[in-house]
Specification:
alpha/beta, five-stranded parallel sheet, globular
Length: 203
């Protein structure tokens, strides 16, 4: 069966990558196959998860590159060489330029740990998002999977899921609940939806 070829871009622990790998095994993600995991951090635990699943890995650090242009050019070359149809940012802590994002229109998706347009955009990533949600005092937060364009967290929303905030939440506790109840649920489902649409275009 023809499947969309997926590259997952990571920087850290890779629990969202794991959710995608598990979804591929369980058949939730059936229209796409993870061909490649790319990390901008040499020590990202996500790379261990990818290798354990038998997925090809690649490391491109900004330190090894002459600048952002060179970093993105290398990234683009790798994605083109591997004939990637869909790029999934799963805890990838780099903002990609307009030049890069416009080269892959509707072919890059991201998972963000809040209900966009709250607590998103430049400077809102990882634990900072949950710290901001708790400081503001919102009672509901969640996760969003949007397409990625030149505006950080400004692309069209594909899927969202709400998560209730509890009185005794710390940023760490909230982060875990948002991952478990929302991110790991919607990212594989959104990936499947986008891959199925890519396949329709290919036929
Ligand atoms: C996840 O919570 C993801 O939503 C967030 O970083 C974490 C990565 O965890 N991404 C962002 O904040 C992007 N703006 P993981 O490496 O275990 O998947």
């Amino acid at each position: 069966m023809l499947k969309a070829r997926i590259a997952v871009l990571v920087s850290g622990g890779g629990t969202n990558l794991q959710a995608l790998i598990d979804a591929q095994r369980s058949g939730i993600l059936k229209s796409g196959t993870i061909e490649l995991v790319i990390s901008n951090k040499a020590d990202a635990y996500a790379l261990t998860r990818a290798s354990a699943a038998g997925i090809k890995i690649s490391i491109i650090t900004k330190g090894d590159c002459a600048g952002t242009d060179d970093f993105e050019a290398r990234l683009t070359r790798l994605l083109r060489e591997n004939k990637i149809d869909l790029i999934i940012l799963a805890g990838f802590m780099c903002i990609l330029s307009e030049k890069f994002t416009s080269a892959f229109p509707n072919r890059i998706i991201n998972v963000h740990p809040s209900l966009i347009p709250s607590f998103c955009g430049k400077g809102y990533y990882g634990l900072k998002v949950h710290e901001a949600a708790l400081a503001y005092g919102v009672k509901i937060t969640g996760a969003t999977v949007p397409f990625v364009n030149a505006v950080p967290d400004g692309g069209k929303i594909i899927m969202q899921k709400a998560v209730a905030i509890r009185k005794c939440d710390t940023p760490e506790i909230l982060q875990q609940r948002v991952m478990r109840q929302a991110e790991w649920v919607i990212l594989p489902r959104a990936a499947e939806r986008v891959c199925a649409n890519i396949l329709k275009e290919k036929i």
